[in-house]
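This part of the workshop introduces the protein records we will be handling. Getting from the letters to the tokens is the skill we practise here. The record below serves as our worked example for the rest of this section.

…
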Amino acid sequence: QVQLAESGGGLVQAGGSLRLSCAASGDTFSRYAMGWFRRPPGKGREFVAGISWSGSMSGVAASVKGRFSISRDNAKNTLYLQMENLRPEDTAVYYCAGWRGNGDVYYNTDILYDYWGQGTQVTVSS
């Protein structure tokens, strides 16, 4: 059992940067695979980035490759998403998610994640 809380969303102009944080509590954060997902207005939830227990395995969706990066600090029980060169199509509610997996891996399928934060709004103006 782990509780997740996102922060850092806001309104930015195209080309700007934003850093999202996800604070975890209640369980051993270092044994949860973590991911970022987003839900654009009127669309379904989509994978953004994921990271394994130790951070040795990580990746981002093709749509944000080269612009977004994921990291974690297990000592601080915190997950991060650094977003650079933001575009209007990045506008969405961003969620962090966790799954207590079987090894030092991550997954890009949302149904495998059991725990979710409430989300934080990111709006990118043109």
DSSP finds no helices and eleven strands in the chain. The longest strand covers residues 18-25. Residues 30 and 117 are 17 Å apart (CA to CA). The radius of gyration is 13 Å.
